Amino acid sequence: MDQQSDQRGDQQRIAVVVGGASGIGAAVATALEHDGCRVVVADLATDGAGGPAVDVTDEASVEALFAGVLAEHGRVDVVVNSAGVSTLGLLTELDAAEFRRVVDVNLTGAFLVLKHGGRAVADGGVLISLTSLNARQPGTGMGAYCAAKAGLAMLTEVAALELAPRRVRVNAISPGLVLTPLTAPAMDIAGIEDDYLANTPLGRAGLPEEVAAAAVYIAGAAWLTGEVLDLNGGAHLARYPDIHGHVMRAFA
Fold this sequence. Notes:
Elements: H1 3-8, E1 14-18, H2 23-34, E2 38-42, H3 59-73, E3 78-81, H4 96-120, E4 126-130, H5 143-163, E5 169-175, H6 184-187, H7 192-198, H8 208-220, E6 228-231, H9 243-251
Parallel strand pairs: 1-2, 1-3, 3-4, 4-5, 5-6
């Protein structure tokens, strides 16, 4: 039994998964439930999942989410933020409003979840963010997304320092290519999937369930904090695919 479990005794852990209605977030929610948590799934559109709606770019919405969970369940032990969006465009051509939109969801939204989740989570709890291979690996046409995810990686480390006095652990998972409904349209463009796999030493894409397994591990690893876990089949050891080039050739 880890120190966190000992502090909880027999009380069921309450987990909040932001962006948990589909894809990686949904897999994380399922895995945490199987690990014994009572899971609250929050998303911009819950699509009948029954969880609360939340807009991570709206501070009042994020604050209300955690206030509601505390009011209903009395505690929060695990927070996972899987909300994210991307875009494609060269920096010299990208509209400033589009750049702000991507940063607002992926970085400012993550800050708001860390802020209000960090206030709500019980001492000894854990906060987990989903970053990306692009937190460390640049991609042409992906400046907004890369900048936001790199910022989130550093924000994770700062939050780990600041929340450590309460034994609250803050970590992130940095996936490479994971096959989800969100990535499916890109995989339909000729050359993109092949380019990814050619630059992934283990030679395959990941599954949402594999990211979820990492989240469950991190949620229970009582001496792990400030970690940004590369989970990408070794893709961080190679180069990032030329997604912009593939898109331009496909739609020229």
